[in-house]
Predict the structure.
Amino acid sequence: MKKIKKAGFVIKPHAPGIKNVLRELMLYFEKNGIECVLEEVAAKKLRKNRGLQREKVPGLSDIVIVLGGDGTMLSIAHLAAKVGVPVMGVNMGSLGFLTEVPLDEVYITLDEYLKGNDSIVSHRQMLEVSHQKSTFLCLNDTVINKGALARMIRCEIWINEKKIAVPSLDGIIISTPTGSTAYSLSAGGPIIQPHIPAIIIAPICPHTLTFRPMVISSESTVMIKILSGGEKSYLTLDGQRGNLVKKNEEVEIKNSNYAFSLISSPKRNYFDLVQEKLGWG
């Protein structure tokens, strides 16, 4: 494992108790001889003047600590994956499938990681999404859906250059196993363990009730072509970034060569997390 010299911090600024948690974690790293790198809002919380833009933090860190919820995590996941930096998400009171480490397990987790325990690092599949001349990375999902006042979207769905369906629907979700517990789950998609190499296609309110969620190989390439005209359709990436998709435009989705490294608590496994977050008892 690479020697940790710098720890980056990305935060949800209005999370309860965020200032004290941030200060204590910085003290922990400094006692271990590790320099702390703060994004701008984190620096302002502590009245420091050396904050960076959020997108620059992963590239200047050897580990990134996210204090907040899954939205905060998703805002930097694609950046951390590109530079190969592991991320630990600390749950600050939200649902937190990605920011999964509770406050009372933070230091146990960090101690194990700094000792070189790679077994607590989960390497998560990501999606590469191409639209027009742009390419994006997603950790959870890419979604194509209609505008607030638009009619149903009509589209073609292709898998490995074979057209499989031409549905009318409110939208469609293409998800990784990590994203199977996010929007896809709400649309009736399955829960898939993160290490399983798969892609989920989950329709949102399809007009044809027999068009159901599908799980396909992660080696597949999915192409969605929009046939609707006049109405606005939107491409959303991890719920964070987006583009307008026009009639006859295509969106291609496939497995990325990048992986996201997520540091998890050594005191729990994936099924403990699912039990806890979904209230299975």
Remarks:
- The mean pLDDT is 94.
- The radius of gyration is 20 Å.
- Helices lie at 18-31, 40-45, 70-83, 106-114, 183-186, 270-278.
